[in-house]
Every structure is written in C-alpha cells, then in structure tokens.
Design goal:
2 copies of one chain form a homodimer.
Chain A (H helix, E strand, L loop, with lengths): L7 H15 L6 H8 L3 H8 L2 H23 L5 H16 L9 H9 L8 H28 L7 H22 L2 H16 L5
Helix pairs in contact in A: 1-2, 1-4, 4-7, 5-8, 5-9, 6-7, 7-8, 8-9
Chain A binds a DNA duplex (30 and 30 nucleotides) through helix 3.
Amino acid sequence: MRPREFDNDDVLRIAFDQFWRKGVRGTSLSDIARDAGVQRGSLYNAFGSKEALLLQAYERYAGGYLVALQEALGAGSLRKRLTAFFDLTITNFRSGSPPRGCPTTRGLMELGAAEGEGLDEDARKAFANLVSRITALVEDTLSAGAERGEFDGNPTSAALHIITVTRGLAVLERAFDDEPQLRKIAAHTIDLVLGKGGR
Amino acid sequence: MRPREFDNDDVLRIAFDQFWRKGVRGTSLSDIARDAGVQRGSLYNAFGSKEALLLQAYERYAGGYLVALQEALGAGSLRKRLTAFFDLTITNFRSGSPPRGCPTTRGLMELGAAEGEGLDEDARKAFANLVSRITALVEDTLSAGAERGEFDGNPTSAALHIITVTRGLAVLERAFDDEPQLRKIAAHTIDLVLGKGGR
DNA sequence: CCATGTTTTTGACGTCGTGTCAAATATTGA
DNA sequence: TCAATATTTGACACGACGTCAAAAACATGG
C-alpha cells in the first residue's frame, strides 16, 4: 500500500497549536493543512473529521500536561505543592505570544453549547475528563497533606474549590490579560484554603 | 423613507437567545433571520454585522442583569447578600432547557482567541466590562459589610476571589452539568470568605 | 521483474456560513 | 402627485466543512 507522506504526530502537534491559538471554531482544516504541508483531503483520510482530529490532538496534549501536573504536585510541603500547581496552571495559560489561554476551558465553553451538533459532545467529554483528573490529583494531594497535619479541612470540597478557581483564572486571563492579577488570586486562594497563618 | 418592518428590540432579544443557547459561532444570521421573520439582508442593513448585532444584543442583556444583581446584593446581612448573589448567578447559568450556561463566560472564551479577527475584540471588551462591573458591585458590598463589622478581610481581594469562583462555576456548569455541585461550591466559597463560623 | 491490490493523494463538487451590492419597493413630506 | 430616502430582496463572491471518484505510489507475491 501507499505510505503516508506525513508524520501523524507532527500533524497532531501542529493542529493542537492552532486550536490553542485560534480556538477550535476559529481554526480551519485548510489552516492546519497549510501549516503541516499536507493536503486537506489527506487529513480527512487520516483522521476522519475535524472533531476527531481535535480529539486526538487534545489527548496528546492532556497526557503531557497531566505528567507535568503530577510532578508539580509531588514535592515539598502542601503549601509548596499548591503553589507549584497554580504556577504551572498560570504559566500554561500565559505560554505563547500572545498568550494562548487555557485550551481546556476554551474548548469546554466553545463546544459546550446547549444545542451542539452532537459530534462535539465527545470533545466536550474529553475536556471535562481532564478537569476531573486534575481535580482528583489535587484531592489526593490535599488528603496526603491532611494526614501529615498540613491541612484540616475537607479535601474533596477544597479540591473542588481549587479547581473552580483555576477555571475562573482561565476566564479572567482572557478577560483582563493581567498575569500579576492571576498570581495574586492564586496566592489568595492558597491562603484561604490553608489558612493565612503558618501551617 | 420606507419604515422598518420589524421591531429592533425584538430582534435583539431573539438574537441574544440564540447566541446564548448555541454560542456566537454556532448561531448564523440565517438562524436569527428565520426566527425573527426577517430577511438576512435586513439584519445587515439594520445592524451592520454579526458582531455588531451581538454587541447590541449583549448590552441589552447586561443592563437587565446588572439591575437584578444589584437587587440581590442589596438586602440583608452580608452572608445573605452573598448567598443571593451566588443564587442569582447559578440560577442564571441554569436557566433554559437545556440550561444555557453563562453567556458572558462563553463569549469571553469563544471570542477571546489569541489571534482573533479584530472585530471580535469589541465584543470581548464588552464581556470583560460586565465582569468588571460585577466585581465592583461585590467589592462595594464587601466594603459595606466590613464597615458593619460583618467582614474583616480585604474587600478587593475577596471580591476578585468571588468573581473568579463565579467564572469557574460557569465553566464547571458546562463540564459537569451538575447544579447541586455548583451550589455546594458556592456555599463553600462563602464559608471560606466570611469564615465558617457565625459572623 | 512485473502485475496486482491496497492505501494515500488529489481535485471537483455540494452545502452552508459571512458579507456586499445593485435593483426593486414602500413610505414620507414637499 | 412626485421626488427623496431608507428598507427589502435576491444575486454574487468567498471560504468553511465534508464527500467522492479518479489518479498515484508503494508492497508483495508470483
């Protein structure tokens, strides 16, 4: 059979970068094809549809991001871990020039229309799934911290609160384009959750 | 001159409902024209472009929403005010069937692409502006509460925190479609900000 | 070494979206 | 009544998604 003329993973990487920068609906398959040096039809042959391509590109991103998150959450005091968590989160939002924002949050709001087309639904689930997995990581970290006496609240509630704040940060990032503001909110959140004093 | 055959405000109302349900990019001018019983060209004549129509439709919504917010924030103890604030926020997200989510947050993420087309920028600013105005209302409420001895933190930081949580709630609403969860997070946030005990 | 089969590539097509334009139309006011 | 003016209408250009059949490139087996 005829061999494929492009590397599958290269295309996923290029496609996700475009989705990240311009949004899913703002990125056309022609854009991706041009950038990847591939014919538009070849993308349909290889991936099936725009949503399917998005899905694969996003999984690729999510995998790497989860690894980085686990690392950030895995060392030092609970306060240090949460600080590293917010740092990574905000740094990720502010990566690129101009900053690209949070792809997960954008995808969720972009494809989470009340009356979506239907194929979008799979992508929406993938975005929601990453949020769930991050929440679980944060909750585990808080639970471990609680056992070590570094935290005495409810890990489940606190993790949900923290995740909510990170999603809010993603929105404020787009609204105000003010990185110091994001970092202040993050620090304030950590103080609220752990108690402002020492701990 | 020839009189206009439709009511301007009717069209704005119908248009915003569609934008809210299906998202800005997911709503075509043909959809709006059909729903309003107006020819597509007439919309261009009356409003100029899709973004301009969105802008006017959104201003119309924002005005009404701000009034409702002020009412929610204007009566009772600080705790009651904040509870009413979150109630209104979540009820707004969950209005419609299926629930339509938060139009502001969706608009911000949908049009806040790093590489937007340019005309979208005005709409993005309008969304961000509502967020700013809500933040100011919350901050005023907290300041007043502080003067009455109901709150002893920094009103500015706390207001920013609360606004961040509401934006996060808008995202989680799309992600998990779980209204009780949203209300739990809201209650938890109020406890964190005001102190869990009495106050 | 060639023929066959399989996959990829390529280009044309249909449909729908935005936005523009000129021509037709309906009022108002002189 | 008639001219001026704004609105409506339909055609057009352009770009998006997705489909399809024909062409092309390779691998394998004879």
